[in-house]
Amino acid sequence: MELQELKTTDLKPEEFIEQKIQQLRAQVDGPAVNALSGGVDSSVVTLLGFKALGENLKTYFIENGLMRQNEPQIIAGLFRKMGVPVEIIDAKEEFFTALKGLTDPEEKREAITQTFYKDVFGKMVRQSGAKYLLQGTNYTDVEETVAGIKRQHNILEQLGIDTQQQYGYKVIEPLVQLRKSGVRAVGKALGLPVEIYNRPPFPGPALAARVIGKVTPERIQIVRQATAIVEETLSKTGAFQYLAILHEDRVTGIRAGKRDFGLQIEVRCWESTDAKTGTPTKLPFETLTELAEKITGKVAGVVSVTYNITTKPPSTIEAV
Amino acid sequence: MELQELKTTDLKPEEFIEQKIQQLRAQVDGPAVNALSGGVDSSVVTLLGFKALGENLKTYFIENGLMRQNEPQIIAGLFRKMGVPVEIIDAKEEFFTALKGLTDPEEKREAITQTFYKDVFGKMVRQSGAKYLLQGTNYTDVEETVAGIKRQHNILEQLGIDTQQQYGYKVIEPLVQLRKSGVRAVGKALGLPVEIYNRPPFPGPALAARVIGKVTPERIQIVRQATAIVEETLSKTGAFQYLAILHEDRVTGIRAGKRDFGLQIEVRCWESTDAKTGTPTKLPFETLTELAEKITGKVAGVVSVTYNITTKPPSTIEAV
Fold first, then answer.
1. Of A248, A309, A311, which is closest to B291 when you measure between CB atoms?
2. Can you list the alpha helix ranges (DSSP code H) found in A129-279?
3. What is the pTM of this model?
4. A18/chain B closest Cα distance in angstroms
5. Is the confidence metric ipTM above 0.85 for this complex?
6. CB-based contacts of A310, cutoff 8 Å, min separation 6
């Protein structure tokens, strides 16, 4: 069956929600699970799934050590406030062990996928006895995965992987026909808080996708600090997405009058409606200067900050 | 003897030229040589030296394979037009052999220095029988070398290297008290063409300083093409310096709908008067977009272009 896009202009969010709730209730005949990351997609799936299945849905937040500052606590807290129970699973060690020594982006993504599905989340699913897994895959994810541009962590069926046979559960993807803007509209109609349904996208492999080369707790901490500065400085721009990337290349800098062979952070800020194409935001130079000063001033070891000026395509939104 | 800066505001170019011509004639009692790279410093030394010493000065242009497009022919042609004889020495193979496999910036600079002084230029000096080597070292070069920020290729005495003993010639540096702006004023007063005396600085190791990681003929060709685009696009800005850097890190891109794990070029454009401190030029976004489009469109393999937004310090003008 050919997957058909449901354009945001054609989407009627309330009808879509009602229809998906009916479908989920018809499809799911026992306990189901899902993993909440705090992004729009998984947040919409969590609330949609909870409305459809109630206590039959068990929602996990996997703390992989690759998240932004305090993210597990903030996100789980927001959902608990809405009456949706969320369990935080500490899996930092499993992920850093799996990533050890890897530098190739595809190998890193694969290590995270495997650790997530087989080791950590797979174990949760098996322990819970659930036979259904709800996922927030959207239309752009499928398109890019099929085109071979990027391997998203949550596309399995499209790649010919039989999750039922391989992992013991069936994957259900209620948002798979929607672009990001459609998912946001559904999130708003569902009653998610605006900071969730308008949240800038964040990649599946989290901050590991923001580190070129080796992923270690130390390097994740550097990009986490830079990310906090970028998000704090650029949240008011209303841009589609903004991010900090830690490079592996070292560049010459000066600290206290001495040569310092240091780190470089690349900042990207995107104008886009669907992540399919994108244009760098025309940030005022004062903002660019502020970013560079804060990052080189507050993040130890960073001597250079650049700003992406390439459109997508030929660039992608993320670097890794 | 403490080296004293001669501030540009205190400089009287005609008097300075007259004084240096007298000093050179007094110091040099036989054949002298110098190497012309086409930068302001070595160009001023070439013309100053020729005015002082005439045919007693032999000027070489070492083609190290790391130069910009057609640079040896253009520069040598300009000087020949002024009546200054220049000999081009093809030493591409020697330099690429010396650079093979090196990735550390200091090792690369050292390999270029050694190849230049000991092998290529050293051989020229020995063959010519010259006992004097004229060099365009300026005050900022000395300062940064002494401070340990960066190793310039033309500072030997300051580092305690006795060239007379080690290489068989004495180094004379007539511009060593001047900042770049002073060197430009002297160049103008000497009658150099404006495109030479106002030329943006170019590093001693040439395009090798613009390549992070391994220096190969292929990688030099990529950064040479990007450099040509950057210089063509930014020459009208009147900026102090503008450059393209080829990164070693690879980033994800899209070409013809497919994933392309490609190259990244970083563009830097500086406002500065003396290279001691610098600020990124506030280029209009249209110019940044034009740069990114031209570079990703014309330089094979490049999928991403960034713009430096960090001041010096903590950055340096160059990255390597």
1. A309
2. 139-146, 163-166, 180-190, 194-197, 217-234
3. 0.78
4. 35
5. no
6. A280, B292, B296, B303, B304, B305, B306
